[in-house]
Design goal:
- This protein is α/β, with parallel strands linked by helices.
- The protein has one domain: TIM Barrel.
- It has 6 helices and 9 strands, in the order ββαβαβαβββαβαβα.
- Helix 5 links the parallel strand 8 and strand 9.
- The longest helix has 13 residues.
- The two termini are 28 Å apart.
Length: 223
């Protein structure tokens, strides 16, 4: 794997801050580059600064320092780098639970089945909702997750409509094709407002707040 490499923005060990795995220790491989430009992006350095080249062997060595923990491949957008799939396959072989966080605009059909996919559904206020590849819903399984970052009531209503039309909520939580989470943009939407909307609609979605921003509010990287 020495000749197989990826552009990496940062490597770090922290608590998983979002998704149903929030709170668990996790090794993060944040790859550089992104094909989207969301208005509320909190990781602009992934595409605004050059990444550092790491071989897959070097990445495996970093991961091996933290035995038993989750591993998350994130970005930016990991799937714009061809070798990200090879990295996932290699990590699976090491018998780790692997998460992929992806922005929802790139085909997921080549992602290995054992990878847990956390897929964004970008809402209108992100400015990127028209870039969403809704056919990706067909590649999701019960282990996977859809993450909706909500900036306004308009975003909330739009996400609810899209997910309802795709029949992703199901009649019961156990019927859902994938887990669904709603998260507020902390700078512009009070978490209690989003919680109220979810309760008013009795929506079968998980409310989440970015745990790492609560624990380390002044830490912009490595958390």
């Amino acid at each position: 794997m020495k000749n197989k490499s990826l552009q990496v923005s940062e490597l770090f060990f922290s608590l998983q801050g979002e998704s149903s795995y929030a709170g668990y220790p996790c090794v993060f491989i944040r790859l550089a580059g992104c094909n989207l430009r969301c208005t509320y992006c909190d990781a602009q350095y992934t595409y605004g600064e050059p990444g550092q080249l790491f071989s897959i062997d070097e990445l495996l060595t970093f991961v091996s320092q933290y035995s038993g923990s989750l591993v998350e491949i994130t970005g930016g957008e990991p799937l714009i780098q061809e070798n990200s799939i090879l990295l996932m396959e290699t990590l699976i072989d090491s018998n780790r639970k692997i998460l992929l966080e992806t922005n929802g605009s790139i085909d997921l059909s080549n992602v290995p089945a054992k990878i847990i996919k956390i897929v964004d559904l970008k809402c209108p206020d992100s400015g990127m909702h028209e870039k969403m590849l809704l056919d990706n819903f067909s590649h999701l399984k019960g282990q996977d997750e859809i993450k909706c970052v909500i900036n306004s009531r308009k975003d909330y209503d739009w996400a609810k409509k899209v997910l309802t039309q795709a029949n992703l909520f199901g009649d019961h939580l156990q019927d859902q094709k994938a887990k669904i989470t709603f998260s507020p943009v902390s700078a512009s939407l009070e978490a209690t407002k989003l919680a109220d909307w979810l309760l008013e609609d009795n929506l079968p979605a998980r409310m989440q707040i970015q745990l790492h921003k609560i624990l380390w509010p002044n830490k912009e990287r490595g958390a």
